[in-house]
Amino acid sequence: MAFFGSLGFALLYNIRGRKLWYAAFGGLLAWSVYLLLRLWIESDVTQYLIAASLVTVYAEVLARATKTPSTTFLIAAIIPLVPGSGLYYTMSYAINGSWDKFIDTGIHTLALSAALAAGIMVASSVCRIITVTFVHWKNR
């Protein structure tokens, strides 16, 4: 389902050709990594961080291989990891006046979102440093 969800968003974002399938496979990869990490890591925030980092590396590698911006692959591939149910339940608890559940769910959802953002930033930065270093070393 993660593959098809990412495929739908890739179509929505007008990705065409082979890139469409690469982006959809990225969603499958992101969700598979998340599910596999559940076997060894108890914290879902850590699972999100690692899954986001790996899918970002996947997008960066494909970006270099296809001469396409990495966001083309990353946006569609990260869709299965977006904490939509957490956002929904946070707002539901707020509307119903369940303030304890609202705060707990809201903080957890913010932590998942921060883990996604941090995973993307760290992996993208590391890939950028490696690329710049390699290009600098190659041009010596």
By secondary-structure content and strand pairing, the structural class works out as: mainly alpha
Helix content: over 70%
Per DSSP, the total helix count is 6
Binned strand content: under 5%
Average pLDDT number: 92
The total of beta strands comes to 0
Helix and strand element order: HHHHHH
Q: Compute the CA-based radius of gyration.
A: 17 Å
- Low-pLDDT residue spans: none
| Number of spatially distinct domains | 1
Compute the separation of the termini in Å.
Answer: 47 Å
Query: What coarse outline follows from CA principal-axis ratios?
Result: globular
Question: The biggest beta sheet, please?
Answer: none
Write the layout of secondary structure elements.
Blueprint: H1 2-12, H2 18-37, H3 44-66, H4 70-78, H5 84-96, H6 99-138
Helix pairs in contact: 1-2, 1-4, 2-3, 2-4, 3-4, 3-6, 5-6
Quick recap:
This protein has helices at residues 2-12, 18-37, 44-66, 70-78, 84-96, 99-138. With 140 residues, it is mostly helical.
Descriptive key words:
0% strand, mainly alpha, single chain, 140 residues
General description of the model:
This protein has helices spanning 2-12, 18-37, 44-66, 70-78, 84-96, 99-138. It is globular. The protein has one domain (2-138). It is an all-alpha fold and 140 residues long. Helices cover 83% and strands 0% of the residues. Helix 1 runs antiparallel to helix 2, helix 1 (2-12) crosses helix 4 and helix 3 (44-66) packs antiparallel against helix 4.
